[in-house]
Design brief:
Elements (H helix, E strand, L loop, with lengths): L11 E3 L2 E3 L16 H9 L3 E5 L5 E6 H5 L10 E9 L5 E6 L10 E2 L2 E3 L15 H15 L11 E11 L7 E11 L11 E7 L4 H4 L8 H16 L13 E3 L5
Parallel strand pairs: 5-10, 9-12
Antiparallel strand pairs: 1-2, 3-4, 5-8, 6-7, 6-11, 9-10
Length: 256
Amino acid sequence: MMLTLPFRNFIKKAANRTLQNSFILRAKSTKGEKSEAEKSQEVALEEKLFLVDENDKVIGHASKRECHQVKKDGEIPLHRAFSVFLFSSHGDLLLQRRSEEKITYPGLYTNSCCSHPIVDIEGEGEECDALGVKKAAQRRLGFELGIPKDKLPLEKFDYITRVHYKDDGNGEWGEHEIDYVLFFQGDVPVNPNPNEISEISYVPRHELDQHLPTLGTLTPWFNLILKHRLKLWWDNLDKLDKIMDHEKILKLGFPK
């Protein structure tokens, strides 16, 4: 049975494995002033992302704001992103609930960490073996989950494949990404950033189907990956070479 506990409580043992859920209290802003979370979101909207074509070739740059605003004709610029699936040494997957202050998909449950390589950060555009994306994931795991960089060696990130998907979101903010799927397995300390994350949980593979209905709406990329590939990938966690595909880009959620 999944339990929800205050994050500041000690990690509990349940059903002979570790289960950790967190509720993180978010500081409320003074009336008329922006909260720290809102200020952080505004700054992030000006970061430059990599625009790509359907073959993941870089064709330009645009701000995060431009990459996520739904145009009047329904178009959203295609850009490069990544999704990290962080597993414990026992194979439990860390899921997070996005903060209610997030501009895109606030309050929805998703995989461990999702973001983008940034144009102006040195090394995040490197493409050999998805090295730039791995560096971006290392940085973002530190920012969102407070995991020290030295606990996230680049060689421990496994690049599984790429996923192309589009979602119109709320009609104002949406997603259109070529999403690099990265796996990382290891027991790492976490200290979630309350501006980004409101809750986390470690879920064992055998409890996934039981736990999912309790989460409510999922982010579109996590929902698509879950529906089409995640269980297969998870079942091959000890033999990832079998499931890696760096040639094809999976198109998920588009009409056939």
